[in-house]
Write a structure and sequence with these properties.
The chain is an alpha/beta fold. 47% of the residues lie in helices and 13% in strands. It binds dihydroflavine-adenine dinucleotide (FDA).
Amino acid sequence: MVGWFSKLVVATTVRMPKWFVRWVSRRYVAGETLNEAMAVMKRLSSEGACFTIDVLGEEISSMEEANFFLEEYIRVMRAIREENLDANISIKPTAFGLLIDQKKGMENIRHLVEMAAKEDMFVRLDMEDHRVTTATIDAVLALHKEGLTNVGTVLQGRLFRTLADIDSLEESLGPGADYRICKGIYLEPEDISFTNYTDIVDATNAAIDRMFAAGSYVGVASHDQPVIDHTLSALKAHGMGPGIEDPRPNAGPNRHQKGPGYEFQMLLGVRGPLRRRLLKEGHRTRVYIPYGEKWYEYSIRRLKENPTIGSHVAKAFLMPWTNRP
Ligand code: FDA
């Protein structure tokens, strides 16, 4: 359910001058260029964080546009290695053409994942709306089948299909599955997804449990206390935690420069004190770093798709003590 305040924030923001939106979004977007993103990561490295980088943009209208993302991500990977940062990359499959031409889109993604494999770098396929859920999961399955294990998908707790997806990924990949689990940012239709807060939290927590039980690598991407608390309890129940080698009997292999079977993931600029507390307790904590020239289009589209983001942002702006970067 989206309240009147969220709707009001969205209606107001889309009418604001671009400079104002830029000013507000500064804490959530690292900048327009790779250099700016590198500077943010170097700064946060001193806190002990690790990173995943997202070049802003998605759903392209011609296959030529995919080349931009391919080239930019190659630059990103080089820069990560040159600067010796603890970072990997997150890509949007539709930015590589998956919705225009599935075969060519898949070739682009494969090319990038192969290049990343040479650097032992992990590639996360961000999960977009339900039109590409199956295609995104299939891409990960196909790449693993070809021996490219440095790639994993995101699953969204709000979708009814998620538990079944975990089961079928476990069947195909065994404990080699490597997930990011989040609630899901897209407001999906009621016939395929939960729509109220409690159901979404419960479903997300159930997915986390299923992933841990399967021996998978679990990246919990949430700033929400009930999800974090649930994860901490699940870790305890499995005897997992900071500095402990993953004790699950069915745990997957040591993976592509990751933590002991799990990590927490948060967005740049959101709930910094919570992230730093988890870091201080020794948990591996990854910050999602978006950057790119398309920051404006991206921010406005996300707001329109899910107006609750608008109320989070407005709250952080008007009541900064509730959400420090
Ligand atoms: P919730 O929305 O309840 O937020 C909890 C609290 O966190 C809020 O009260 C507020 O204080 C703060 N907060 C959360 N979001 C904020 C924001 N944008 N600005 C300011 N404050 C905010 N989704 C998806 O569909 N596909 C994907 O691939 C990803 N990838 C992804 C990566 C990472 C690292 C994260 C953290 C999240 C995603 N998501 C995503 C988004 C995710 O599905 C979800 O929409 C958001 O994380 C918000 O849900 P929370 O669980 O954080 O809870």
